Amino acid sequence: QLQRRGFRRLHGVDGSAGMLQQARSTGLYEELRLCVLGKEPLPAPAEHYDAVTVVGALGEGQVPSTVLPELLRVTKPGGFLCLTTRSNPSNVRYRAGLEAALRQLERSGAGQKLLAQEVEYWERATSEEESTRGTGYISGVVYIYQKCPVPRLEEG
């Protein structure tokens, strides 16, 4: 989907060598690196990427929401952050913390929210307790933010 929308040079990171091997087998990625998000810096220079996506990793016991500044660091001014998280009962506290961190990003002027969209059938539930209204699925949310350009300081 990303390539169909004009993103041609895809780089990926994961904390699991096995997942990187699976990603490598798709032939979609130009570069893949081992990196544990939230524990070590991303292996990229500042303001390097037009868009940074995190899918399937922002959740309770996974990547902490404190990773947002690091994601912004590698995003070009005017570039995009696309983040996802689950809305299931076991992720309620994490989602609240993530949304608080995103509001702080906006208040600081570092990013602007473009979209926060609920997706009812995000992924299959692994238990009835996690299922959204008995559908057999977990709902989720997609956030898209744009990194704000750094304002120029006026001389004088």
From TrEMBL:
<dbReference type="InterPro" id="IPR013216">
    <property type="entry name" value="Methyltransf_11"/>
</dbReference>
<feature type="domain" description="Methyltransferase type 11">
    <location>
        <begin position="2"/>
        <end position="82"/>
    </location>
</feature>
<dbReference type="GO" id="GO:0008757">
    <property type="term" value="F:S-adenosylmethionine-dependent methyltransferase activity"/>
</dbReference>
<dbReference type="InterPro" id="IPR029063">
    <property type="entry name" value="SAM-dependent_MTases_sf"/>
</dbReference>
<protein>
    <submittedName>
        <fullName>MET27 protein</fullName>
    </submittedName>
</protein>
<dbReference type="Pfam" id="PF08241">
    <property type="entry name" value="Methyltransf_11"/>
</dbReference>
